[in-house]
Amino acid sequence: MTFRREETVWIPESDLEGMSVDTLAVRAGQIRTGQLEHSDAIFPTSSFVYGSAAQAAARFGGEEPGNIYSRFTNPTVQAFEGRIAAMEGGERAVATASGMSAILSTCMALLQSGDHVICSRGVFGTTNVLFQKYMARFGVETTFVSLTDMDEWQASVRPETRMLFIETPSNPLCEVADMAALGRLAHDNDALFVVDNCFCTPVLQRPLEQGADIVIHSATKYLDGQGRCVGGVVVGSEKMMEEIYGFLRSAGPTMSPFNAWVFQKGLETLPIRMRAHCDNALELALWLEQQPAVERVFYAGLQSHPQHELAKKQQTGFGGVLSFQLKGAREEAWSFIDGTRMISITANLGDVKTTITHPATTTHGRLSPEDKARAGITENLIRISVGIEAVEDLKTDLERGFQALRNASTDNV
Ligand SMILES: Cc1ncc(COP(=O)(O)O)c(C=O)c1O
After folding, report:
1. What is the pLDDT of residue 4?
2. Domain interval for residue 299
3. Atom nearest to 348 CA in ligand 1
4. 190 in a domain, yes or no?
5. pLDDT tens digits, one per residue of 125-182
6. Which residue, by CA, sits nearest to atom 9 of ligand 1?
7. What is the CATH number of the domain that holds 89?
8. Does residue 11 lie within any of the structural domains?
9. For residue 100, which atom of ligand 1 is closest to its CA?
10. Are 167 and 283 in the same domain?
């Protein structure tokens, strides 16, 4: 292929057909300008120009494809969308300003007043607030159910149920949903099955192949992986993505070209990062299970996890997030967290740097005490998003947390 200076070329997707997610992460969705750059170009421009008034009219009228305005057409954003769509095995992706705006845009585009949603109880706290407080104001009612109790899902279906929404594995307790069963339930009832695939990413799990209609990501997490940008993305069929794209064009929760470029580069290392996260998390989970101050560890890679077999079937790895309950209450959890020195105290997850948080007072702090109890968010619970540092060094830092607990109990004598 030859390039003219002014030409921008999309590398043909057909060249990558049947290739693995590792290859798609590096190659899919790439565009190359006439400068023949090897790394992805970035197009930080709000608008685009036309060769003539007639061309402008044709672009606005939809008769000619091409860029118009970066609220809804930007090549860098489209490059990121092409790559993540290929990795998830979806027809098309729509990138958004944040993970929450990906969820909001999906709801606004595909639901209407009078519709009913069933959502798993253990979803990210803000997702819960979005459904419970804001979608309810527009006449969309949500029933919250246990992620793993199929009878409760079945019993909650109504004639007006239009969407089943889950995260699997869940945050922070790492519960695993049976996606095939939930997909069947949704489709038997003319509802959409939406999966927030934030914890696994397409490297470990591809929900569209297991019954989901739509996959959502907070790109802020593993897709970037280095804690730099906030963003989101929705993946699914051309028809549904066109609806979501239409909402984005009108309402504007768009991803910026710079953020899209960061995420595009982040995807290139996602497969190797995810494997490193999984290895470290499994080793830490096994180690934490042996600590006398620990009451229980939640990680789907452990034999003790109730959905261990299901996770093995659905996922190619168990992910980088684990949580555990200490013997004690909030005081013990906070002492442990404050005792660590290297691990970052932050609610973000999916970063190469290990992070630690107390869900009951941070990510899930806005839930009512009843909702926290129902979601299993206890005061002695700690969540760790395991990074890619040397696992022995992570143990050394967590050991400082255990030492802080021992010091506190001696002080109290
Ligand atoms: C599973 C999950 N989904 C969605 C979100 C929201 O994403 P964002 O913070 O990018 O809006 C988060 C944020 O932590 C999350 O953990």
Report:
1. 46
2. 270-411
3. 14
4. yes
5. 889 999 999 999 999 999 999 999 999 999 999 999 999 999 999 989 999 999 999 9
6. 99
7. 3.40.640.10
8. no
9. 11
10. no
